[in-house]
Task: structure prediction
Amino acid sequence: MRATILAIGDEIVHGLTTDTNSGFVAARLREAGVEVVGGFGVTDDVDRIVRALERALADAELVVATGGLGPTSDDLTTAAVARLTDRPLALDAASLGAIEERFRAIGREMSPNNRKQAEFPAGSTVLANPVGTAPGFVTPVERDGQTRHVVCMPGVPHEMRRMLDEQLLPWLRAQAGARRFATRVFSTFGLGEAQLDELLAGAFESDVRVAFRAAFPKVQARLSVSGEDAAALESRLDTLEAVLRERLGDHVYAAGDEDLAETVGRLLHARRLTLAVAESCTGGLIGDRITDVPGSSEYFLLGVVAYSNDAKQALLDVPDAVLAEHGAVSIETAEAMAEGVRRRAGTALGVATTGIAGPEGGTDEKPVGTVCIALAWDGGRWSRRYQLGARDRSWVKRMTAQIALDRVRRYVLSDVHPDEESNDG
Amino acid sequence: MRATILAIGDEIVHGLTTDTNSGFVAARLREAGVEVVGGFGVTDDVDRIVRALERALADAELVVATGGLGPTSDDLTTAAVARLTDRPLALDAASLGAIEERFRAIGREMSPNNRKQAEFPAGSTVLANPVGTAPGFVTPVERDGQTRHVVCMPGVPHEMRRMLDEQLLPWLRAQAGARRFATRVFSTFGLGEAQLDELLAGAFESDVRVAFRAAFPKVQARLSVSGEDAAALESRLDTLEAVLRERLGDHVYAAGDEDLAETVGRLLHARRLTLAVAESCTGGLIGDRITDVPGSSEYFLLGVVAYSNDAKQALLDVPDAVLAEHGAVSIETAEAMAEGVRRRAGTALGVATTGIAGPEGGTDEKPVGTVCIALAWDGGRWSRRYQLGARDRSWVKRMTAQIALDRVRRYVLSDVHPDEESNDG
Result:
C-alpha cells in the first residue's frame, strides 16, 4: 500500500510552525509496511485542500491528513473531504456526547462551534480522541475502480500520535497486506558521501536501498529493505551490515544516529578510562560535546581552554622553551598540553588541540586551518599536524573537535596499547 | 507572485529527518512579499520529482526546491529539472573550479562523482555556494504563456540559508519590480514571544509587519515595511526601531541576527576588558560560543571546565570548606570559581556556572535544573541561583550559558561599576 501525507494549516505552509506531524506519521506508516511516496503542505482553504487531496489520491491508496479539525472557521478539513467525496455531513451522536463530556469534566460549557467536530462525511469510520475534543475519521473514496481511503487526524501532535498508535495503525493492519520495510542507519566519519558511495558500489542486490546524508562533521549511511517477514528482514539486514562494515571499516563509528562524543563516552566507560581535555583553537567545543552525554562526569574530569600562552604555561605546564622554540601551534605544544592536562587531572588520557581557526592569525608557514592534535597516556603519546584549509572559523573548530574525538575513539579501540589500557582500567 | 515549496529526499518523506527548510524558505519568501500557497515532500525518484514539479508549477509562478543536489546516485533534483524543462545538462566551468578548489583547500581529492554538482539544465542561473560543494540554480520554465521559475538549493540547512539570503532574495527583488520590502531584525533575550508581542501591542501602524521567531535561547523580533523608495523605507525603519527599543528596553541585545557571545565580545573589546570562564554544568559551551567570535583571543584568556570537585579545588582554588559546607552547586562555590579563574588568568572579569543538568544528580533540595551563576571583578561579585526546571540536559546547558553571557553583558553595560571598568581598561 502506498500513502501520501498532508499537513493542513496556514501556520505550517507559511513557516510559522515546523511540521513534525508528517515525519512522525511517515515513520510509523513505514514501520507498518506502508510505502510513503510523498507529502503536501496546504493552507486553510477548501479549494486548495480538495485539490491537494485529489492529487494525493492520484499517487496513493491511502492519504493521511493532519490538522484543520478544530472548532473555528478556519478549520476546513472535514468540509473539504465531504466535498471531495460528495458525501453529506452527518452528526455522530457518540462523538458529540464525548465532546460534551470533556467540557463538563473541566467545568466549562461547550461552545456551539464545537458541535461541528462531531460531524463527519457520511459513511466514515470515526477515530475517537481520548485526549482532545477533535475526533479523527477515515472516509472511503472510489478511484480507478478501487476503494482508497482518506484519513483525517487532529494537528495537535500529542493527540495525533495517540490516535495514530491506538486506532489508525490497528485499522491499517486489519486492511493491509503483509509487506513491511526495515532500515538500518550507520554513523561514519572520515570520508565524504561520494567516497562512501564508491566504496559501496556493487556491494548490494538491486532491491537494497542505500542512501547517504551528510550531517557535518559526520555522514550517515542508510540501508533499507522490504519483505513480508519481520525476522527475515532483520536477519537480511545483519548480513548487509556485515558487508557494509567490511567495506567501510573503522570509518563506521556507530550503528544508529549517534554523536561521536557518545561513542567515545561508551568506550571510555566500558574500559573504565578517564579523560581530560586541553583546548586552544576548539575553545571548549570538545568539553561541550562530551558533557552533552548524560553520565559523562564519570569519565570526563577536567577541561582547560588555554587560549593565551600564559594559560598554557600556568595551567598546563607547557614549558617556556617549547612555546619559544616551536610556537603555540605545533605538535610539541599540543603534546605538552595533552600531557599537562592529563597530569593535572590525574586521568588515563589527555587530548589537546591547538591551531589557527582564523580568519586572522595565519602565516605562510602556518596558514589558517593549521591544526595540531595530540593524545597523551601513561607512557606514550601521539600527535599530528593537519592542514584543514582556510574554511570559516566555526568549521575549523568543529572539524578539529571531531578529529580529536575520533582519535580518542581509535586509541581506545586499538590493541596497540594494551598495557596502558589495563593499567588504567 | 505565488510560490510553492518542495522538500526533496527520502529521509524527509519517510520521517527520518524533520524538514525545517521549507518553513524557513516560506517565512523568508513571505517577508519578501511572495505568497506561499503550499508545499510538497517528495522522495529521491526522478519520476516523482518531475511530477511534483509539474504540480507545483500549476499552482505558482515560483517553485523553490531544497535537497537532492549532492554528489551521489540518489541525488536526482538536477536531472528531474532537466527532464521537466527538456533542457540538456551543461557543465558550468566556474562551478567545477569552485568545487575543485574546495577539495584542494582541505587537502582531499575531488571524487569524479562531484563533477555532476557543476552540471545544470542549460540556460539556468547558477547560485554559488560559499559554504559547501553543491551550487544551486534557477531554471526558467514556460507555462500558460508565462515564464515561471524553478529554484533548486542544497538541503543542508546552513548552506541553503546563506544561499537564500545572499543570492535568491536579491534575485527575487530584481524580478519583483519597483515595490521593495525592507526588514530589520532584533535579537532579544529574557522574554518569550507572547510577552514581546504584548509589549509591542499597538505600537505600530497597521502596514508594519511584526513577526517573532524563537531561535532558542534567543527570540528574534522582525519589523518589515514596504514601499517604493529605499531611503524612505530605511528612515521609517529608524523611527520604528526607536519605538521598539523603548518598549522592549535592554531585552534587545543587538540589532540584527547576532549571537549574544558576539555582543559580549564587542562590549569587552570596546571597554578593553578581559574575561575568564569557569564552567561546571555548561561543560565548555560558554568558551565554545565566545571563541566562535573572530578576534576573541584578545579578551578571552582562559576557560576551565571543572567537572570534578578535585578540579574545582586544584585549578580554581575553591576552598574545601566551601565545597563541604555548601556543595558544588551553590552560589558560594560559583563565586569562588569565578574569583578563582579570574585570579588564575589575571583578567578583569570572571564568570562561573555550576548546576545540575540532569537527567541524574537531582535531589529534593537541588532538583535537576538548579543552576548557580556568578560574576567576579576586582573588588566585587554578583551571584544568583536559578531554578530552570527539569528540562533536557542540552536545554539546561544552553539556557545557563545564555544567562551567564547576558550577565556579563549587563555588567559591562551598567554604570554601577565605573571604577572597576576604568581600572581594568
Remarks:
- The first helix of chain A runs from residue 10 to 13.
- Chain A touches chain B through 97 residues (CB under 8 Å).
- The radius of gyration of chain A is 29 Å.
